[in-house]
Each structure stands twice: as structure tokens, then as C-alpha cells.
Design brief:
Layout (H helix, E strand, L loop, with lengths): L6 E6 L3 H12 L4 E4 L15 E2 L11 H17 L4 E9 L7 H13 L10 E4 L15 E10 L1 H14 L3 E3 L2 E9 L2 E8 L5 E11 L5 H8 L8 E12 L7 E5 L5 E7 L3 E5 L3 E2 L11 H12 L13 E10 L13 E6 L7 E6 L5 H12 L30 H11 L5 H11 L3 H5 L11 E3 L2 E2 H10 L5 H8 L8 H13 L9
């Protein structure tokens, strides 16, 4: 079916960049539709190292603009979504054979000062024998440095952008594929297919944004019929999760002889997340997975530093993603720029096309802002930038003089709902922030949350996720809206799948 009036913007791709652009555009009063052929954040955006960071190693590649923008974004995003983003201190043990101490000190000085840091503490040198982070490390590690960055629940960040876009008027279509897009003068004629129902739909739009991530080139060639050079270079990054290797809240950044760095990060209370790799990738991004060589590489990298080593058989979960980087002709995968490139295909009398290449999760908001700087003049939109001061859904937790106090929010939430078990109250607060109240509704007891499917999963939460967060499959819930897949029993996972099936959805549980 066709609409009466053309849309202003259609966005292809439901990752962090696509949802960020849809949110920004909708907030400027533009009519927006976003389509995603799978689940929101199901590609690269849920396969990151889950850091909001400047990228310390990019200083060595002289990417000062990217690092500065990223550092400035840390505190913008921390204020916008303090329930899913929080500060983290990183320990860099000094390995004398790799980089001299003066170089690390200089890099951290720049890191502290490039981005106008206000909320996060500065870097400093530490004696590992006197510091909690030193105990798990080998005895020869005597000196180190500690600095600040932030942690993010990456897939939830995508969903929050989509929610905000929807609440500002955008239409968000998941499990919906763009079949074709053709220019008809000053308009795009676009055909979609709902992959669940099989129904097709046609719309017209004044501008088209190709934010399909690793599929940006295939959308150009196969859906838009374009022979425009894509400039895409696909780099695979893989991660492993093992039982906790340490019992404190610090993360580690380890230097490796090959020039790369590997993070070891406290994860989901009882695990350690280790990553990432940089490997050229030529296959289908939908089929990406970690290789045995990558697992061995990550194990070996952390075993150089920790007293208690790990082996591939210790790995409890893995994930891999493809970074859709702009091809800057770098010789190695690890040195390809992480900066983003916005390629505007603009021809007189023809509807514009904006292709999005590269980027990192930290800079999604600025990328969206820059995308709108390119599109707004073509759409006669004079609305100003607005996202720098806006909170994301659930992020309005209350602000103190030193930023948001998440623990104070949790305490208040528990006081308002004393019947809610403490661990469940904290999980709801951490995942949903102020929107946790939407799950509870007028409940006054655990029994009011509906059927218990096991392991603290109640029907009220499932209803919220289906109605508000586009959950269709069990995998959406277990591996993207949360990481409950690491914590719950197979029986509970099966119960969730059965419940979704009973509600006309899918019981697919693989992430």
C-alpha cells in the first residue's frame, strides 16, 4: 500500500547509527521510518567490547579528532543513560618490553585533557603490589597506570534510541527488509517486506539513509542498483567470556607484542569478558563467528599477565561481529580508521542518499548529528541540534552535583517497592532505569507480576519487552535486551520460548 504524503527520511538499518539518526531526525520534527531486517542491534552494535571510550590506542595512530570527539561524548552519554552506562576504571600494567613508561604517561595526559573531562577521575600511576588490581597479576608486574572510561550495555543503547525515535513520531519496523529503492526525481520509491507476515509495502521518501552497517555495500548494489564505489572494509572482532578471573571492579587493558591491546573486563557479576581481535573478513556478516585461532589468541594474551591462566575449554560464551570500516588503505586490520565517513550522494533534481561507513558506538550521537547537518538543508529543516542535552528513555534518574547517583536511584526504587526482591529490583533498575515503573504498573506484590517462568523472570517483564521493545524471539530477550542467557537455566529459557510461542512470536533462543 502507498502513503498519502512522502516521508521526509527513510533509514535502512537498525543498529546504533541507524537508530541514532532516526531519533535525531524525528526530534527535529521530520517524518521518519526505519526498517531493520532482523532485530534491533542484532549485528555489529551488540558485538562490541561494550565501552564508551576515547580509544587510548588511537592516539598512536594520530587520530586526535576521533579521540577528542569520543572523549567528549563519554560524559554526554553518561548523563543521557546512566542506567545502562556507568564509569569504569582501567588498569594498564606496564610491560617494559613494549612501550616505555614516559610514552604511556604522555598518552594518558592527553587522554585526560583532550575531551574536557569533568565527571570522571583522572589517570595516575600505581604500584601494583599496593593496589587491588595487582593481586591476580604475575609477580613481575610491579608498576601500572589507572585511567577512566565508561561501560555500556550496547544492545540496550540501540533499543533506547529506537524507543525515543518512536515516541517522537518515527515508525520503527523490525524483521522488515528493504526489497528495493529507486529514485523517481526528487523522491525515493521504496518497497519493504515484512519477513514475518510476507506482506509488502511501498512508501515514498524525500531522503534515504543507508546505515546498514556491514551490509551497506550490498544494500547499495542489490537494493539500490548502484555501482557507486562503497569504500567498505570489513574487520571481524571477536570476544570470549570466561568465569571471573578476579574479584574486584577494575578492568584491565593489556599490551601485546603484536602492537594490539586486549581488554579483560568484569562482566555480568560473575564473568570476565576478554577481547577483541582484528581480522579481515570476506564472508556473509550474518554468518560471522569466532575462530579457534582467535580463542587461542585471546587466551594467550591474558595468560601473559594473569597468574591463573585460562584455556579454550574455560570459555562459556563467545560472540563476534563485523565492523563496517571505511577503507583507508591501511595495511593491517588493527590500524584501519575507526572514524566514520558520511557519503552524501546528491544530484540536482534527484532525491539524496546518505551512506554511513565506519564509526564506533561511542560516537553514534555525533555521527547522527553530522548526518542531519548534511540532510537538513536538503529537507528545508531548520530545527537545531538537540540530542546533547536530552536523556534517553529511562535515563531520568535524578541529577546530583557530581552527576547521576545510580545507587541512590536503586535505593529509592526499592523504598517505593519494598515487596520487590533486592536482586530483581537492582536488575530492573539497571536494565530499564525509570521505565522499570512501566513493568511494575500498579503491582503491590510479586504475585502481581504474573506468571513466574523461573530465575526471576516474570510475565510482566515479558509483556513490557514485547509491547515496548520489539521482542519477537527469545534470543532478542536473552542476548540483546539483556544477557540473561548467561544466567538462567535451560528450563527457564524454554519457558520463555514457550510463552513467546503462545503469544504468536518465536521460541528461537540462539543469539
Amino acid at each position: 500500500m502507498a502513503q498519502d504524503r512522502p516521508l521526509d527520511v527513510v533509514v535502512i538499518g537498525g543498529g546504533v547509527n541507524g537508530t541514532g539518526i532516526a531519533r535525531d531526525a524525528a526530534g527535529r520534527g521530520l517524518s521518519v521510518l526505519l526498517c531493520e531486517k532482523s532485530d534491533l542491534g542484532s549485528g555489529t552494535s551488540s558485538a562490541s567490547t561494550k565501552l564508551i571510550h576515547g580509544g587510548l590506542r588511537y592516539l598512536e595512530q594520530y587520530e586526535f579528532r576521533l579521540v577528542r570527539e569520543s572523549l567528549m561524548e563519554r560524559e554526554v552519554l553518561l548523563r543521557a543513560a546512566p542506567h545502562i552506562i556507568w564509569p569504569m576504571r582501567f588498569v594498564l600494567p606496564h610491560n617494559k618490553s613494549l612501550r616505555p613508561a614516559w610514552m604511556i604517561r604522555l598518552g594518558l595526559f592527553l587522554y585526560d585533557h583532550l575531551g574536557g573531562r569533568k565527571l570522571l577521575p583522572a589517570s595516575r600511576g600505581i604500584k601494583l603490589s599496593d593496589h587491588p588490581s595487582g593481586a591476580p597479576l604475575k609477580d613481575e608486574m610491579t608498576r601500572g597506570f589507572v585511567y577512566s572510561d565508561c561501560w555500556v550495555q550496547d544492545a540496550r543503547l540501540v533499543v533506547l534510541n529506537a524507543i525515543d525515535a518512536r515516541e517522537r513520531g518515527a515508525e520503527i519496523l523490525t524483521r522488515t527488509e528493504c526489497l528495493s529503492a529507486r529514485r523517481a526525481g526528487e523522491l525515493w520509491e521504496i518497497e519493504f517486506k515484512d519477513l514475518r507476515s510476507g506482506q509488502t509495502r511501498s512508501v515514498q521518501a524525500r531522503a534515504l539513509v543507508n546505515a546498514a552497517g556491514p551490509w551497506v555495500a550490498s544494500v547499495l548494489e542489490q537494493r539500490l542498483g548502484s555501482n557507486r564505489a562503497s569504500g567498505l572494509r570489513m574487520i571481524k572482532g571477536s570476544h570470549i567470556v570466561v568465569p571471573a578471573m578476579f574479584d574486584h571492579g577494575y578492568a584491565y587493558i593489556f599490551q601485546n607484542p603484536d602492537g594490539r591491546i586486549v581488554f579483560a573486563i568484569p562482566y555480568e557479576d560473575r564473568f570476565t569478558l576478554i577481547g577483541t581481535t582484528d581480522v579481515e573478513y570476506k564472508g556473509d556478516p550474518a554468518e560471522v563467528k569466532i575462530s579457534d585461532d582467535e580463542v587461542s589468541y585471546l587466551c594467550k594474551a591474558v595468560n601473559e599477565y594473569f597468574k591463573s591462566g585460562i584455556a579454550p575449554e574455560d570459555v562459556v560464551w563467545t560472540y563476534a561481529g563485523v565492523r563496517p570500516l571505511y577503507d583507508d588503505a591501511s595495511q593491517t586490520a588493527s590500524t584501519v580508521t575507526r572514524d566514520y565517513v558520511l557519503d552524501l550522494d546528491e544530484q540536482k533534481g534527484q532525491a539524496p542518499l546518505l551512506n554511513v561507513f565506519g564509526g564506533k558506538i561511542t560516537t553514534f550521537r555525533k555521527l547522527a548529528e553530522h548526518a542531519m547537518e548534511k540532510l537538513c538543508p536538503l529537507l528545508d529543516c531548520r530545527a537545531p541540534d538537540w540530542t546533547a542535552e536530552a536523556v534517553l528513555p529511562g535515563g531520568d534518574l535524578g541529577q546530583g552535583k557530581d552527576g547521576v547517583n545510580f545507587n541512590a536511584f536503586v535505593d529509592a526504587f526499592r523504598e517505593q517497592n519494598p515487596w520487590l526482591p533486592a536482586d530483581l529490583a537492582r536488575r530492573y533498575a539497571r536494565n530499564y532505569g525509570a521505565r522499570a515503573a512501566m513493568i511494575l504498573g500498579d503491582a503491590g506484590s510479586v504475585g502481581d507480576l504474573g506468571r513466574h517462568l523461573g530465575d526471576g523472570i516474570y510475565e510482566a517483564e515479558l509483556n513490557y519487552l514485547v509491547e515496548q521493545e520489539w521482542v519477537v524471539e527469545a534470543a532478542d530477550l536473552l542476548w540483546r535486551r539483556s544477557k540473561l542467557g548467561l544466567h538462567i537455566s535451560d528450563e527457564t529459557a524454554a519457558q520463555i520460548g514457550t510463552w513467546l510461542g503462545q503469544h504468536g512470536l518465536s521460541d528461537r533462543r540462539v543469539g
